[in-house]
Amino acid sequence: MDSVFSRIGMLWLLLLLGSCAANKPREGWLVIVGGGGTTQSIQERTIELAGGQQAKVVVFPQASELPETGPEVCQMWKERGAASAVVADPGQEEEALRLVAQADLIWFPGGVQTRLMDALGPNLPAAIRARYRQGAVVGGTSAGAAVMSEVMITGEIEGGDEQDNGLNFVRSQTVETKRGLGMLDWAIVDQHFLRRRRFHRLLSSVMDHPHLVGIGVDERTAAIVQGTRVEALGEGQVLIVDPRGASVEVPAKGKPAGGGDYRVHLLREGMSRDLAR
Fold it and tell me: How many domains does the chain have?
């Protein structure tokens, strides 16, 4: 009799686990473009990941000050075969939340990343993350790429300027960061990467946050991410700096940093790397 009850109990447990697995959200894709233009191949791959001709696209253009940005980006996605493409207004939060809940692709054009995060407010980022966990594609270019990580590089450098990227050597605690969308909680993203020589900026950032992987995406290039796998697509390269397990010496703020045993990967189109620990 005990064995019968044991078998019944085991069957119940298996059914429960199967139900939990079936209800587990399916993580979507991130398409992180380094700026300088979103190439046709990147557009086509993005629409394919979002469901092809059935794709519903929602665009948040608030990083840009140009009123034409939203309509132009919507037209771009329609020309790539999207079923629909609309601009979302965070000021109309209820409608914006409804659009996010139905979206297959949520896209963020370039501009200023802090302006975008300020515009989204407290509720939309959580809704976008939830839709991504349900399988939607979330992507953006330039500032729209920078917001993908939870620790977001703002572009502001203490004691420096944009011309020299604010860092003439790798310094501690000088790269300003704020909270981004949080699509990536295991990485920091930087854009216009090789073109604007931002390696030292990204390296400084990961040395300040040694539990996070640095992903630098060049112009006209995308890092396509699902889970912890990063694939490069486009004309340039994706550089990855992995500080996990490295030795990091933490100097006083603004002083030269030091460390060793960092892992670096340089991906060109068609190459990928799984960054699971």
Answer: 1
